[in-house]
Amino acid sequence: MALRKKHEVLEEPQDYEIERRETPRYNPDPEAGLSAAQVEQHREDGWRNVSVAPPAQTTKEIIRENVCTYFNLIFLVLAILLCLVGSFRDLTFLPVIIFNTLIGIVQEIRAKNVLEKLNMLNAPHASVVRDGKKSLVDSEELVLDDIVIFKAGNQICADAIVVSGEVRVNESLLTGESDEITKAPGAELMSGSFVVAGECHARLDKVGVDSYISKLTLEAKAMKKGEQSEMIRSLDKLVKFVGIALIPIGITLFVQGFFFNDQSFRNSIVSMVAAVLGMIPEGLYLLASVALAVSSMRLAHKKVLLHDMKSIETLARVNVLCVDKTGTITENSMSVKDMIPTKEYDAEKMPELNGLLSDFVGAMSSDNSTMEALKDYFKKKTEQSASKVVPFTSVTKYSGVMFGEKSYVIGAPEFVLREDYDTYKPDISEYARKGYRVLVFGSYDAALDGGKLTGKVLPMAYVLLANPIRKEAPETFAYFAEQGVEVKVISGDNPLTVSEVAKEAGIVNAEEYVDATTLQTDEDIANAIAKYTVFGRVTPGQKRQFVQALKDQGKTVAMTGDGVNDVLALKDADCSVAMASGSDAACQAAQVVLLESNFACMPSVVLEGRRVVNNIQRSASLFLVKNIFSFLLSLFSVVFMMSYPLQPSQISLISMFTIGIPGFFLAFQPNKDVIKGHFLTNVVLKALPAGLTDVLAVAAMAVFGQTFGLGETDISTAGTMLLAIVGFMILFKICEPFNWLRGCVWGGSVIGLLGCSIFLPKLFAITGMSTKCIMLFVVFSIATEPLFRYLTKLVSGVRKLHMKIHKKPVEEF
Questions:
Q1: Catalytic annotation on 324?
Q2: Options 146, 159, 179, 324, the catalytic residue
Q3: For residues 388 and 674, what is the distance between their CA atoms, to the nearest angstrom?
Q4: pLDDT per residue as tens digits for the range 449-489
């Protein structure tokens, strides 16, 4: 045979490459299996069934990503510089940075630990035949060409070929189809599928990294990470700009202070660090991290796991939601709703239907959900003895029983009635339109042999089955309709049936349905996804195409799924939601995992997202005031050859009481408003008036202070107090309308800042001011209010004019 190559789809090949050599293939006797020597040969050649880890980060990778960031490096350099000059008092920014980093690490490791409890391949042991003896071994100890015995309840641990016996398998987690498929000798068994009935001996054909489920897992891992949320993208843009700007500004300020303004080395370093610290929005990242972490804990109490904290914002912005019928709209269980006699049934001449069907299903084994539903409904047995039983297969699509010489069958109408189907199609379609799955029960005019039906079937009754609509489904979908979220139902079932179920669940435009088998090209899919709401007969590959088509049309797409076949579509969606009852591959790929597989909790996730994003957006303007002020004041200092007038500890004091503490509490206020506009635009425009007010007031204070011969400490303290006044003005504006909590936040922040200034003056570099300084401070303090008010009106007016010119809706400012 040809030498096998290493897997080629890997994002990180070094993690999965196994040293393999060309090895002989064996075709052992099913009752004897491989010999010990053959097993050892395959092991030496590297052909063991070593499992592939799901697409999840390791603890080491999580820690490295959160610690080794650009800004952590900047903070480390600043801390070292302050330590070198002995300014330990100015290291008050470090706890914020450490706390921010720890939050990200703890949350991501927590999500990783929860997901690791869900195993994709729950087949730790397997029954293998070697040297003519059966033994139970760990599934990873199996080798290529091993003969493995699979029975009902087993999960297939590697791709295999049936060599003797027969089994029925459920491949729903792989293909999305729920029907059980019969596998006879020569048929392929896919890893990850389950045996629901029968027993067979199978030869392992593809093991470890070569198996079907491993390849899909690795393809999911090789895909790039999902796009960041709007808020995080905006913060990243801000950080990128600041990260580039702060280095030349910082160097220029140091050179200017040390070489041109005759400052000491220590004072030059401290002044430069203060300017750079003010430009970095470290508190904003902390606020976002804390708020998202708290939201994650809140959702955890509702049995919702966030694999990625940032996904909560993406879900809050979603405007298209793709869902499946079973498990989302309906319960997973199936039940018989009714039995309708056909016009061919003669009650006087034929056996009583309920009793006949009860005897029929009583003879069958409960090996699939349909038969279990039939057994639950038909219980009036007449104790007829079955002479022959033919179980259901996905090929023949019927089950059959013979009572003596009489044969009866039940199954899918198209397969049972065949050429007579058109005669009964109007009745069957009518029931399908009502959302039922229709089975035909009838008498067969020949002996049953287990193969396809060739004789004539006389239909006696229609058996109507349905998955019950989840009682909370109408309310859930009504909520999404109110919020302007479009729902797309994507299912492998009959589109007409799915449409009726969607109507019953209250999904808007559920009457607009299409059979996905008619969609052949990308253009067909793009047109259909824009026009239709319900998609039936969807193949696993089409799910991913639907998601991509929606994204190409500018939609923010959320996708729900539970099977391995959903993984790639989940990866492509803006926000992915998995049911914990499904496959581990889906849970690992998704950003949100519903631990109780209850779709009804989705509105609470959306509301939590809106609350946290709207509140962070409102509070973020507090943080941007400091950044705008520090950036512009640094430029002012460079242009006019002045020393930066503030110290790092003073920046920390202002940040704590006008930004950090109030921003934290305000971020947890109730807020159900729809998220509007772009995060960065909204935040910058709200922060700009206060930032400009700060710059003008402090710069003027510095210029007038030098003109009147005030000392650096006087100017520094007065500048800090001016920043506090403007900070509390914008905080007052943001707290409106006031409630008891917002009032406590504002009043407590004022008291806290005054308390620290009075009782901890040395820690925060607050000194007493001279008479001249106090007089100047009073004048500029009075000027700040009208300056802030008119700048706010100016910025608001410019924005409204811009929106009017570009014919865009004017969002609330």
A1: yes
A2: 324
A3: 63
A4: 888 888 899 999 999 988 788 888 899 999 888 888 899 99
